[in-house]
Amino acid sequence: MQVLLVEDDLDLVDALARVLASRGFGLVCCADGKEALAWLRKRQFDVVVLDLSLPGLDGLEVLQRLRDQGQRLPVLVVTARGSVDDRVRGLTLGADDYLTKPFDTEELVARILALVRRSQGVEEFRCGQLQLNTTTGVLMRAGRPFDIAPREATMLRALITRPDQPVAKDDLCRTVFGDDASQQGDAMDLLAHRLRKRLAGTGAALLTMRGIGYLLVDASDPDSQACA
Predict the structure, then answer these.
(1) Which of 35, 49, 40 is nearest to 68 (CA)?
(2) What does the alpha-carbon distance between residue 115 and residue 112 come to, in Å, rounded to a whole number?
(3) What does CATH list as the number for 2-120?
(4) C-alpha angle with apex 48: 43 to 133, nearest 5 degrees?
(5) What CATH topology corresponds to 124-218?
(6) Which residues pair with residue 204 across a beta bridge?
(7) Helix, strand or coil for residue 76?
(8) Pairing with 129, which of 3, 35, 89, 94 sits 20 to 30 Å away (CA)?
(9) Contact of 48 with 27, CB cutoff 8 Å
């Protein structure tokens, strides 16, 4: 699940990045509105977490431009502006939800998951014996928690939420390792190898699409090309 966090409070960004990464989210952070619009033009995200009080181009202007361009991805506004007028204006311009600072990080995670679930129209992703609950983010195998390493779980979440779509290797690297340039190439291949072994017997299989990335398929169904 790819999140664009637009926030200029670096302490808050650091705290949220740790929480979201621990829950398996892929995260891009930026501190001003123009940079946010640039990211939205070049990458696909599942949700935007948008502060209103930004330097230069403020959050409401970002939101308005986003909707004027026909972008319908979910936007969660987080701001210290807690007045009714501010909320009404944000929702009128196209915000999908509104969270006033200070807030509990678990509430933020729950609202992000709810927005993405609503936008995708699903509550659960399945592949073979595996399930991902989009409300809790918990991975299950045949109804029981699937106990795998955190980075393996992050990779699996990214794959199972993209039914019928190979996920680019570079995107998976950013999701799993962030911007750590030392964790590229061979590290991603090794992680894929470990995850492939962990999937043995689950009915799900990890395929390498050479020159493209990776694809999760339902190996237990001969008529299925990918998971849904």
Answers:
(1) 40
(2) 5
(3) 3.40.50.2300
(4) 95
(5) Arc Repressor Mutant, subunit A (1.10.10)
(6) 218
(7) strand
(8) 3
(9) no
Domain ranges of the chain: 2-120, 124-218
**Residue that the structure tokens 């946010």 belong to:** 36
Top-confidence residue, 1 or 218: 218
Nearest alpha carbon to residue 199 among 191, 211, 187: 191
Edge-to-edge, what's the strand order for the sheet holding 26-30? 26-30, 2-6, 47-51, 75-79, 97-100
| One-character DSSP codes across 147-210 | ---HHHHHHHHHHHTSTT-PEEHHHHHHHHHTT-TTS-THHHHHHHHHHHHHTTTTTEEEEEET
Tokens of 13: 């960004």
Q: State pLDDT tens for residues 71-128.
A: 888 999 988 876 667 777 777 778 888 888 888 887 888 888 878 877 766 667 889 9
Which pLDDT belongs to residue 181? 46
Q: Give the per-residue pLDDT at 121.
A: 63
